[in-house]
Design a protein that fits this description.
Elements: E1 9-11, H1 45-53, H2 55-86, H3 93-99, H4 117-128, E2 135-139, E3 155-157, H5 174-188, H6 192-207, H7 220-240, H8 244-257, H9 262-274, H10 278-294, H11 300-320, E4 324-331, H12 337-350, E5 357-360, E6 381-388, H13 391-394, H14 420-442, H15 456-468, H16 472-492, H17 497-515, H18 524-569
Antiparallel strand pairs: 1-2, 2-3, 4-6, 5-6
Helix pairs in contact: 4-11, 5-6, 6-7, 7-8, 7-9, 8-9, 8-16, 9-10, 10-11, 10-14, 14-15, 15-16, 16-17
């Protein structure tokens, strides 16, 4: 393989540069590195102040929006089920049971048929590099006349015979309109480098308040929606230029601005594929398919294409993995300890070269593209088993099931300052040994969370190590990716009040880090890491105490036996 919601008000910008315009956050940053602040987008002070006051409000609003979308899909699914039952069209029980495979049945491993590169490229042509002239994208804006918040359908094919009236929606600034028109024209002429430069100019105009016709009356969400459109165009330009490294941050930011739009996730998957980061590409494709369904997508052929892409990325990730091998076991009932041992036995027979450390993931259920059906809750689920050639490569996973906040890197002095050599070693361990495994685990695991092995906290902590080593560009990419994942979490799971507050804190700290802001308070993820270090330290003390106690008991028994023997001899 080659190297690598919303409010349903359609908005068309003179049919010249339509793309999805779904605002999701109130601050837009264009930033390549933390050191070079020249590229940071800044809004006028009046707008910036207004946006800052609404940061928490918009984050909470997004969580509420995601919840309402999921509730609507759930209600629609229940209505369909009731209708089928009333009409006597419910599927026979035998067919339903055939889909569920118990662990008591013979254990199966899912085959991975090879998917040709041509098929993957076809998916990208049809879904990633879409024809701008054929798509109408939507604003997420409160429908003030009705107060109704529609669902997050992010794009639809425009009926050429039907010309909707969008005159009541906010109008794009005329100078920005001209810049985007020129950029889109260059893109269609395949002058991608010129187009990228013009889209960057458009992004700068947007940052200076030239997003909408009335900048001082425009909401932060509306400004963000325009920036979201430009970010996605930049992603496509750089992909066409075969410069995925330049497209990466733009792909992440497009998701931060609009996590509900499936094409943003699919474009991110394409960037990851070009960078040969196949596990991350697989997860992005999985979320793209889920978002397509969640937001009302009904075209089955689109879902099939996304699933094909997802499956191909998993296949490639497994093929490229050298340190571990994989087995998926379908199941439907609660997993018992004896069943886990049975799974490990089958894995040992199937993958005898990867038995130095065997890990069965009990932290979350897995879904495969071959059987994924989001409308069927829950879809067919699988147990993931990983086996490693080298015990050192996988033993960190042993902490996941036993620790609430595990720290995967050993600290000789957990509360002391690290030397540069120690920081480099920890950074390499995280980047080359830990994160790739966690990324693979998450490539078939839908639930987003803040728990151990979720990958989000680990990425933010990895960014801290990069910052300490002054690897600013990499740090910026990692934080942008973490922010994209955080922005997506409310759509993947229901959040408690505590989790919602943590999400807001993480997003705020991540944004401050990207902007280079420093304050007296430590970053949330570093505080969590210190809690984990404290927990690890206590576990080490406990283990040391128990070992010492065991040795003392053994010595006492030995001394007692010697005295008894001496007494008997006398």
């Amino acid at each position: 393989m080659d190297s690598r919601s919303s409010k349903n008000l359609s908005y068309t910008v003179n049919r010249v540069y339509p793309d999805q315009l779904v605002p999701k956050i109130n601050t837009i940053k264009k930033m390549s590195t933390l050191a070079n602040t020249l590229s940071i987008l800044e809004m006028p002070q009046e707008t910036k102040k207004s946006c800052g006051d609404k940061k928490v409000e918009i984050t909470v609003e997004r969580i509420k929006m995601a919840k309402s979308i999921k509730e609507k899909q759930s209600n629609d699914f229940e209505k369909v089920a009731l209708k089928r039952k009333a009409e006597g069209e419910e599927k026979p029980a035998g067919k339903k049971e055939a889909k569920i495979i118990e662990l008591d049945s013979p254990l199966l491993t899912m085959p991975l048929p090879h998917i040709p590169l041509k098929n993957i490229m076809d998916v990208e042509v049809k879904l990633v590099y879409v024809d701008e002239e054929d798509v109408s994208y939507e604003f997420v804006e409160s429908f003030r006349s009705t107060g109704i918040r529609p669902t997050c359908r992010a794009a639809e094919i425009v009926d050429p015979l039907r010309v909707p009236d969008f005159s009541f929606l906010p109008q794009i600034d005329k100078w920005l309109q001209v810049a985007l028109k020129d950029a889109s024209s260059c893109y269609r002429q395949k002058k991608y480098a010129v187009a990228a430069g013009q889209f960057r100019t458009a992004l700068e105009l947007c940052s200076k308040g030239a997003a909408l016709g009335k900048p001082f009356e425009a909401s932060a969400e509306d400004i963000a929606s325009v920036a979201s459109f430009i970010e996605t165009k930049l992603v496509m330009c750089y992909l066409r230029m075969r410069k995925p490294d330049l497209a990466l941050n733009h792909a992440h930011r497009s998701i931060v601005l609009n996590p509900a739009y499936f094409r943003n996730h699919l474009r991110q998957a394409t960037v990851f594929r070009c960078l040969e980061r196949y596990s991350e590409a697989a997860r992005s494709a999985m979320i793209a398919d889920y978002m397509f369904w969640l937001c009302g997508g009904s075209e089955q052929y689109i879902s099939k294409l996304i699933k094909l892409y997802w499956q191909a990325m998993i296949e490639e990730a497994i093929t490229r993995a050298e340190s571990f091998s994989v087995m998926y076991t379908p199941f439907a009932t609660k997993i018992r300890a004896d069943k886990i041992e049975k799974v490990k036995e089958v894995f040992t027979k199937t993958h005898p070269a990867y038995v130095e450390f065997i890990y069965t993931d009990l932290q979350g259920l897995h879904t495969l593209p071959q059987t994924a059906d989001w409308s069927s809750f829950p879809p067919q689920q699988y147990l993931l088993t990983l086996g490693f050639k080298n015990k050192e490569d996988g033993k960190f996973l042993g902490k996941v099931s036993s620790r609430k906040i595990p720290i995967f890197i050993e600290h000789k002095t957990p509360f002391g300052l690290q030397t540069r050599e120690e920081t480099v070693r920890h950074m390499e361990t995280m980047g080359k040994r830990i994160l790739p495994v966690l990324d693979f685990i998450r490539s078939t695991q839908m639930n987003g969370s803040f728990r151990a092995s979720s990958g989000v906290m680990e990425k933010l902590q990895y960014a801290t190590l990069l910052s300490q080593l002054q690897r600013v560009k990499e740090q910026s990419q990692v934080i942008n990716q973490a922010m994209a994942e955080l922005a997506t979490i409310p759509y993947l799971q229901d959040l408690s009040q505590q989790e919602a507050e943590l999400l807001q804190s993480l997003m705020a700290d991540a944004m401050d880090t990207l902007e280079g802001r420093r304050n007296d308070k430590e970053r949330v993820w570093n505080i969590i890491q210190k809690v984990g270090q404290t927990e690890d330290f206590l576990y080490q003390l406990e283990d040391s105490f128990l070992k010492t106690k065991k040795l003392r008991t053994a010595r006492r028994q030995k001394t007692k036996m010697k005295r008894l023997q001496t007494t008997q001899q006398n």
